[in-house]
Design goal:
This protein is mainly α. It contains 10 helices and no strands.
Length: 158
């Protein structure tokens, strides 16, 4: 069944379209549609969380940082916004802030492999090879094939 004209312009339909455009790799269109969804429901966090994905895929780091910070103003404990902001800070070469964010998440989610691998890489970029190596070894104890941690451990061992 096709959506009626009224439903096509609804928040949920626009949000879904933005996600599908992102999945198709049509990031510039996805960004536009996520922004439209945000305009339809200005208090909603989910459209902004979605917007982070194509912004990061396009390496539009300053815009992604701004979006993540907007989310955290509304929902200070948002896991995905914090995780994505940590990744953005890493890509902006702000390794101290990236490490701080990853460390905060690692305390809240100690079993999260992605968080711990990110923390290891932030440690490594800060020149803290022993902290990085220890972090990567912890990840590899539970996820022995984790590519990021294997690469990180090899880099920390040089």
């Amino acid at each position: 069944d096709r959506l009626s004209e009224a439903k096509r312009g609804s928040y949920v339909a626009v949000l879904r379209r933005a996600w599908l455009l992102y999945k198709l790799g049509r990031n510039p269109q996805s960004i536009d549609v996520y922004e439209k969804a945000s305009g339809l429901e200005p208090k909603a966090v989910e459209a902004r969380l979605g917007l982070l994905l194509p912004l990061m895929a396009e390496q539009r780091w300053p815009e992604a940082e701004k979006t993540a910070r907007e989310i955290l103003k509304v929902d200070a404990a948002n896991y995905l916004a914090t995780l994505r902001l940590a990744f953005v800070q890493y890509n902006l070469k702000r390794y101290t802030e990236s490490r701080t964010l990853y460390k905060k998440l690692a305390e809240l989610y100690p079993g999260d492999v992605e968080v711990r691998a990110g923390l290891g890489w932030a440690w490594l970029k800060l020149g803290k090879k022993s902290e990085a190596a220890a972090t990567f070894r912890e990840v590899l104890e539970f996820a022995p094939k984790n590519a990021l941690s294997l690469q990180g451990l090899a880099a920390a061992s040089k």
